[in-house]
Amino acid sequence: MTEFEENPRQGVIVYLYRLRNSKQLRKFGQIQYISKKMKYVVLYMDQADVEGNIERLKKLKFVKHVEPSVRPFLRVEYSGSEDGQHYEMTEEDREKFKKMKSEAK
Length: 105
Fold this sequence. Notes:
Elements: E1 9-16, E2 30-35, E3 40-46, H1 50-58, E4 63-68, H2 91-104
Antiparallel strand pairs: 1-3, 1-4, 2-3
């Protein structure tokens, strides 16, 4: 028995001229969201297939524009101090904060 392997996925936003063709996009990946007002579809597909699928999507007549998501390439872990505080208040900020607190009372 083989273990489950997690494939990296990536979102692709496909802008359409008409939404009636949106169901044809199922063969490229999983449809996550369809915006009726702005006429776009959010697809999720394997990251290895994104380049080829984008080229194929651009060739379709009902597709206006295709944009890949940059989320997989963004840094999500940030370094900070040990106590979890990422922002250190300056003396000027402390004075403003005290002033705001006293005015609120």
